[in-house]
Predict the structure of Integrase.
Amino acid sequence: MLTDTHCRNAKPKPKLYRLTDHRGLCLEVKPSGVKAWRYRFTLEGKASMFALGEYPAVSLAEARDRCEAARQLVKQGINPAQQRQIDRIKQASDAEITFEKVAREWLQTKDWEDVTKNRRLDMLERVVFGEIGQMPIRAITPVHVLGILQHTVKRGAPTVAAEARRTMSAVFEYAVATLRADSDPVWPVRKALPANKTQHKTALTTEQIGKLLNDFDNHRCTFQINYCMQLMWWTLARPSEVSEAEWTEIDLDRAQWRIPAERMKARKEHVVPLPTQAVKMLRGLQAITGQRKHVFPGRDNRNTPMSVASLRQALKVLGWAGTYSPHATRTTGSTRLNEMGYRPDAIEAQLAHSDQNNVRRAYNHATYFEERQVMMQDWADHLVQWRAAAHERS
């Protein structure tokens, strides 16, 4: 058997020669001085040699380990040289199968509305793809996943972190099912972060409403963030319904906003009456963004709608993040309109809530539109009064 001293002291000769170790391992010494490890084996009656690397980059101990691994393949009837070629092809193929590629493919398999797919893709692009999007999906480890989740929570977005965790896990499950990953690296770290407890914001008082709207008036945010916030309060529509509003949905002459079914949570078209304040604001805005598809175009890509995250960021800057969230506008509106004496049926219709009573939901098709027109104009007028009172107090 060879020793490291034998290998180190082997000198080149005019002709190639080999120093034998054991079990087919030998050190091939070439006239050029290159020393290469070789494994000699016989498979199906044919003698062959398998390269194991060069000495001293590959030590004697490592060469023996590689030789033993090759011997095990031969015992199974597998040619180690052919297996190495297959492994290299597989590695090259795996390198092309990135997380982003599989994630986009997974999204296309979902029977979701386009708006839902776009929201999920937006989250992946903002939170996940920048970290692991271009990595081979088999190379992603729990450490990579944990880093994404911790960073997202640290920047104050635990809900987004929870969505990222669920989405990444679903993508990995899909990759495993399609034989492009061996396991889900999200699973080991699924409980590493504290559970995200949903905090339902209480309704704002009339003084708080006025101060919030007054703060936005005095905030140096973009005009469309301010206008988006105002339209949300004037209509009590969901934040995403407002931020993704399209000009084709709005009829200013009739003071109506017709939100198509595919953009509604209940997948049912919703007609929203627009108070005079909203019509006036939208007419002015139309001169600025009317040539675009969306009423509130995105900041970086004017062909897409602005993100609800822009509203949340503005609230964070203004110090409202712990007290109020965009969706809490609806809770506040419902509470205050009930206090103002409006019928619950009209309020629920304005909020596009489905009736919890199955019989009523099946037979009650009324939208109370005329009643809602009066109600929402009164609501808008009160918003003006509350904002003016807050301005006087400031």
Observations:
- The two ends are 91 Å apart (CA to CA).
- The domain at 4-92 is CATH 3.30.160.390 (Double Stranded RNA Binding Domain).
